[in-house]
Automatic annotation (TrEMBL):
Identification of the protein by name: Antibiotic transport system permease
Keyword Transport tagged: yes
Main location: membrane
PROSITE patterns referenced in this protein's UniProt entry, alphabetically: ABC_TM2
One of the record's GO molecular function terms: ABC-type transporter activity
Superkingdom: Bacteria
Keyword Protein biosynthesis: no
The entry's keywords: Cell membrane, Membrane, Transmembrane, Transmembrane helix, Transport
Organism: Bilophila wadsworthia (strain 3_1_6)
Length: 388
């Protein structure tokens, strides 16, 4: 004969029934709100198209001019090396002033000057190599392109130096350096921008949408009706969070499928790891959004606060575009409190490297800690009391 007391089980079922009723109410509001479809389905694709096609950090082919003032055999060989480089498109100019005008008119991004005494300086009187300066003049208006031109020019010049003899003739180099890029063999910026855009999309859904949830209830006057019901604070929070959790996972699935099949970004890790990491990130994202909603109680103010404290830090301080290691030390420590930083690192790892749990677990611990802090504060701030 069973010793189970049906009277004890009844409150549990009643508690769950109330929770499901709140979740159903919130789900109906999401379905009836056109902005939910916009944020859940349309905005993710816009972000993916923007970051996948519209934004690139790759060098591409750069337009330059080679000015050979030496008219020497070595200068001609160096020109040919630049002309055969896949990174440069060489234009013609007769003088430095003409090259300068072309750079001011944005026809070229820089020019290389081989000085008139290049051959004489290249080889000294005793056959010893001397210093032969080569000017690399670039436009400082585009620092990223300028750094690319400087770096690739140094590579072309270094390759040319390795394949020549002091007499200016070409020799076969016994050592062949074969560079290899791990995790991103083609060095495509799209391969890490697309996973990063998933971080931005889930921040948008987790923080921005949930920041409006309770604020909307206060503005419509329905929060008082909710407080009058026999539901607990925990039920209210879970009833608000769980529907947006599924909405966030739905958007993540759309973004992941588009990233793999549309942008051809490899998913070297498992789908299980991807869903575990995404679920972990939604905990602090949703908690932060609900906390903002409870504190502000106004949709406009909640949206502005969510933008400043959630969306912008996810773009600027997550390592999505800007390298965290290049930031000041104080700012690097500050990024540890940004959930998007940990999620972005974990996402890039699961897409490009695979299931590396020693990398995932510390990031997950940070996200769970931040999420627990947000939810505890939110729970304490949500008081079932009418303001009179």
């Amino acid at each position: 004969m069973s010793n189970a007391d049906p009277g004890r089980a009844r409150p549990v079922f009643q508690w769950l029934a109330q929770l499901f009723a709140l979740m159903g109410k919130e789900s109906k509001q999401i379905i009836r709100d056109p902005s939910s479809y916009l944020v859940a389905a349309i905005l993710p694709m816009i972000f993916l198209l923007l970051f996948g096609y519209g934004i690139t950090l790759d060098a591409g082919v750069m337009d330059i001019v080679i000015l050979d003032e030496s008219n020497s055999q070595s200068g001609l060989q160096l020109q040919e090396n630049f002309a055969h480089s896949p990174n440069f498109r060489v234009h013609q100019a007769r003088s430095r002033s003409e090259a300068g005008r072309m750079m001011r008119d944005s026809v070229i991004s820089g020019f290389i000057v081989i000085p008139y005494n290049f051959e004489a300086l290249l080889v000294g009187g005793q056959g010893k190599a001397a210093v032969a300066p080569i000017q690399v003049i670039v436009s400082g208006g585009e620092p990223n392109t300028a750094n690319f031109i400087r770096g690739y020019s140094q590579g072309v010049i270094a390759n040319w130096q390795q394949t020549r003899t002091p007499g200016g003739t070409i020799q076969k180099q016994p050592v062949d350096v074969a560079p290899r890029y791990w995790f991103n063999p083609a060095a495509k910026s799209r391969w890490y921008l697309v996973p990063g855009s998933i971080t931005i999309v889930m921040t948008l859904i987790g923080t921005m949408l949930t920041a409006l949830v309770i604020a909307r209830e206060y503005e419509r006057g329905t929060m008082e009706s909710l407080f009058a019901t026999p539901v607990t604070r925990m039920q209210i929070l879970l009833g608000k969070l769980i529907p947006y959790y599924f909405l966030g996972m739905f958007s993540m699935t759309i973004c992941a499928l588009a990233g793999v099949f549309l942008f051809e970004v490899p998913l070297r890790g498992s789908v299980f790891a991807l869903f575990v990491l995404s679920s972990t990130f939604l905990m602090p994202a949703l908690g932060q959004g609900l906390l903002i909603s409870i504190l502000t109680k106004q949709q406009l103010l909640a949206a502005q606060t969510g933008l400043i404290t959630g969306f912008l830090p996810a773009v600027i301080l997550s390592g999505f575009i800007f390298d965290i290691n290049s930031m000041p030390d104080a700012l690097q420590y500050l990024t540890l409190a940004i959930p998007a930083r940990h999620f972005n690192t974990a996402l890039q790892t699961v897409f490009l490297a695979g299931d590396i749990w020693p990398v995932f677990l510390p990031r997950m611990a940070f996200m769970l800690g931040l999420g627990a802090a947000f939810l505890v504060i939110t729970y304490r701030k949500l008081v079932k009391r009418l303001d009179v």
